[in-house]
């Protein structure tokens, strides 16, 4: 009888611990990733958001197909991020070299975005890739 009581207690404790762990807030994922990982992540654009944060003149010279354009230097940049993007859906962000998009990723974290992936080396690295 004691073994059975202990087993029930153990199951109760393990179940209780698992449910209490799920109540802790999950830390947002903000990560700079390689061209290969970025390309793999944007294969299904229905499940992610692809964002180009370069200037209009840069954007007009070419971008990654399927991207939203939100100019990093616009006064309403943060407002546009909040209005055009879904915070619970992964965001893949890029710029020319990775610096602006890295800053944008940090801003998105502060705005409450859950998963943001910055393209290491930006569009320069993307255009040099061999797929």
Name the descriptors.
single chain; 131 residues; alpha/beta; Oxidized Rhodanese, domain 1; five-stranded parallel beta sheet; 6 helices; 5 strands
What is the strand and helix layout of this fold?
Elements lengths: L1 H20 L7 E5 L1 H7 L7 E4 L3 H5 L7 E2 L7 H8 L6 E4 L4 H13 L3 E5 L2 H7 L3
Parallel strand pairs: 1-5, 2-3, 2-4, 4-5
Protein architecture, described:
The protein is of the alpha/beta class and 131 residues long. It is 46% helix and 15% strand. It has a single domain (25-128), classed as 3-Layer(aba) Sandwich (Oxidized Rhodanese, domain 1), CATH 3.40.250.10. Strands 1-5-4-2-3 form a 5-stranded parallel beta sheet. α5 links the parallel β4 (91-94) and β5.
| Quantity of strands, as a count | 5
Give the end-to-end Cα distance, rounded to a whole number of Å. Answer: 64 Å
Examine the secondary-structure arrangement and name the CATH architecture.
3-Layer(aba) Sandwich
Structural class: alpha/beta
Low-confidence segments, given as residue ranges, are 7-15, 17-22
* Number of domains as seen in the coordinates: 1
Tell me the strand order in the biggest sheet.
1-5-4-2-3
CATH fold call: Oxidized Rhodanese, domain 1
The largest sheet is: 5 strands, parallel
Give helix % range.
40-55%
What is the averaged pLDDT score? 86
Radius of gyration in whole Å, from Cα? 21 Å
CATH class division: Alpha Beta
**Could you say which overall geometry the principal axes of the C-alpha atoms support?**
globular
CATH homologous superfamily designation: Rhodanese-like domain
């Amino acid at each position: 009888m004691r073994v059975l009581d202990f087993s029930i207690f153990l199951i109760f404790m393990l179940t209780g611990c698992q449910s209490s762990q799920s109540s802790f807030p999950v830390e947002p994922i903000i990560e700079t990733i390689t061209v290969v990982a970025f390309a793999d992540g944007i294969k299904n654009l229905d499940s992610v958001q692809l964002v180009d944060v370069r200037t209009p003149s840069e954007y007009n010279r070419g971008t990654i197909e399927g991207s939203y354009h939100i100019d990093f230097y616009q006064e309403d940049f943060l407002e546009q991020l909040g209005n055009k993007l879904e915070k619970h859906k992964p965001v893949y962000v890029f710029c020319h070299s990775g610096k602006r998009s890295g800053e944008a990723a940090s801003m998105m974290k502060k705005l409450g975005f859950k998963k943001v992936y910055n393209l290491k080396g930006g569009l320069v690295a993307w255009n040099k890739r061999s797929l």
